[in-house]
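Issue 218. Parser rejects a valid record. Input:
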Amino acid sequence: MKDKFKKLFVGGLGQLTIPLIAIALLVIFNLIRDPGFFGIELMHNNDGNIVLSGNLISIINGASELAVLAMGMTLVTAASGGQDISVGAAAAIAGSVFVKVLKSGGDITGLTVLLAFLGACIVAMIFGAFNGTLVAVFKIQPMIATLILYTCGRSIAYWINGGATPTVNSPIISGIGSFIPGIPIPTPVLIVVTVGIIFKLVFHFTSLKLFTQSVGINGSAARLNGINSTFIKLLSFIILGICVAVAGTIGVSRLGLINHETLLLDVEMDAILAVAIGGNSLGGGKFKISGSIIGAYVIQMLTITLYAMKVSSTDVKAYKAIVIVLLVVIGSPVVKAKFEKLMSKIKNGSQKVSVKGAE
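Output the parser choked on:
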């Protein structure tokens, strides 16, 4: 236990320390403010199914799209040392394709939904490959490269459905966006768990995580060791494209329609913040997917807390910005180094006292 404490604090703040402390503080604050804030209850929804309800469910459910995007953003950040600011616009494109395929046939069946999702994935992967090519092949800084799609992406989504906002009425779509009959847990939460397990299995059975970290730390050295850094960077953007398609599909299924202007609007900033709050370096290199997932839930918990305190929607972003800046600063390398130095002084001081006491 003592060695773990040293590793966590004396050897530098652990990567998950900041997001876990943030969640703990938010939990304590909410319990003091309202002891029943995290209460969970069973209730019947509009379809007559028994489902879980409460603020805690709203938090883990509402952060689903952000959590999925944060996983893909972590991989891109680790490999390229930059961020993709076009994920919101790309999700609007993927969502538009998803709806376009659904509306192209007659009745919406399980096969139609699967084909629509595959179509969304393919299109999102193509745009991801476009961004990845600009970054990996043409060596353009990621934020600048993805600014192109960020600027024109929602216009492309607008063209796909001819400027309309078609609705999709289907029990299958409703099940994806809310609850599957007989399962009280929101479907988006199950999707997040599934995506997380897939990432875990991929990292376990392949060397993708090692190669990604190697390229992010030192691309030239990785290349000398036989790692194709161009391919790894390109692959990270393509994987993010799949995450974008998943998030876009969840967003469309929640609403039952596609609105290219509002679907996951500004989510790219939250995704980047989730990666940062999760303790991952925005300069690339070592990463931890679980940290980004926790970061997504920190952002969502903060949002729900502010709304519960009757903070207006126009002021929520300002309060979120203040808290998030504090979290990011506390988790910055400078603060970590100073904290490590302080802990070392405390440790050395206690050792000197022990030596004098022994004499």
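Fixed in the parser; the record now loads. DSSP finds 17 helices and two strands in the chain.
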